[in-house]
Amino acid sequence: MAAITSLGELRRSEFRSRPVKQEVRDNLVRKVQAGEPLFPGIIGYDETVIPQLVNAVLSRHNFILLGLRGQAKSRILRGLVDLLDEQIPVVPGCEIHDDPLAPLCAACRARVVLEGDDMSIGWLPREARYVEKLATPDVTIADMVGDIDPIKAAQGGLNLSDELTMHYGLLPRANRGVFAINELPDLAGKIQVGLFNILQEGDVQIKGYPIRLKLDVMLVFTANPEDYTARGKIITPLKDRIGSEIRTHYPVTRANAMAITQQEAWTDRTALTVEIPAYVREVVEEIAFQARADRKIDKRSGVSQRLPITTLELVVSNAERRALANGERLVVPRVTDIYAALPSITGKFELEYEGELKGAEQVARDLIRSAVGSVFSGMFEGVDTRAVVEWFDLGGSLPLSDCTSAEQVIAQTRGVQGILELAGKAGLPGGAPAPRVASAIDFVLEGLYAQKKISRNEERGYAAAESAPRRPTRREEPTLDEEIRIPSGKKKYYN
Q1: Each residue of 172-219: pLDDT tens digit?
Q2: Where in the chain are the domains?
């Protein structure tokens, strides 16, 4: 179709203009019938959000995505671009992408009359038909709809009520496309009123002059439920005019969450080879799940999926730093590297009063420990770990840190009975390189620490659990006047 360059050729062709909502519907129907993916990169919504989106598009509705932060709302809206035609014909130079076969603005109508079939046409790609605006309190009705341009009027000797004096806002410039407004409740109420006509009647009016533009636009919105009380609200008449309200959610399963993080996180480092064990990925995701269930964290604010994404990036960076310092070519993150990602974790949630008393960093440390314990328990269910625990109970200690090289970790733990056997159960293949072995050993130690079977100090030195019974090395006799307790609970004194 792009070979068509004039209005006459376009009229003689098979091209027929369609309303944008019908165009999106037709392309969606074609994709569904062909079994093509509808929203590539959107994971975990196949049985929940996607069917509702499909229904809204099939119904030719304007719709709103309602959900907490980090639930892929903006990404879904941008995915609507794939449901538009690859390109459409437009009047060249027109600010509102007028259809050459049925122009709206006065300038384009005059041009069609003047030039006729010889008028040249342009082709607008689908990416240019998506307009997105972040709603902020300072947005004006002129920004959204348009305003009178007195300079145009003066230069052209026109009356202010003349349509040619109009300066079009974002909404008219999205004509024949998709117009998305993010965080709709942040838009002032009087500006929301300005959307009434375009939602219901399909036209806009500028500055009270009797100029009506019958725009063809699909309106979509996003909103966070927290915004309804914290910063603003969607006025009731506007909500009534939005065809569908679709609720989004966080990943339901750890597998879906891991797939999202693997897709979004930047973990490929050019200088070194990066290999991330599955248990590290699981622990990172479990931190977000633990945070969303923790009563010390504000559930109304939510815990964004960006938490595991940025956390994994910092985990890999800390492992990369260790590998560079120790001359290792293979980067294998360890569970202890997650503590280096505290700056990312603490910035991704809001605390309740109880959490404020404890402090964000301590809450984050507790979340990491709980996440490690959950993953370790699932992987080592029914596995006997007493041999390793007894080694610590007998006085053994390991002064390890996240900077210790892989060879040092292996050398220092060689004397710990049973630890290599436990490390092998963490998916460690035979003949694995030293960084991978060290990571598995670290996971075992952190798992036992999370289960409170061993202890660890701030320098990450591992020792016997503080609650473990002390094993005396010699017979200890009670001294004179020493008070002891016998099983019955009664006191007995030696004099």
Answers
A1: 899 999 999 999 988 888 888 888 878 877 777 666 666 677 889 999
A2: 7-247, 254-464
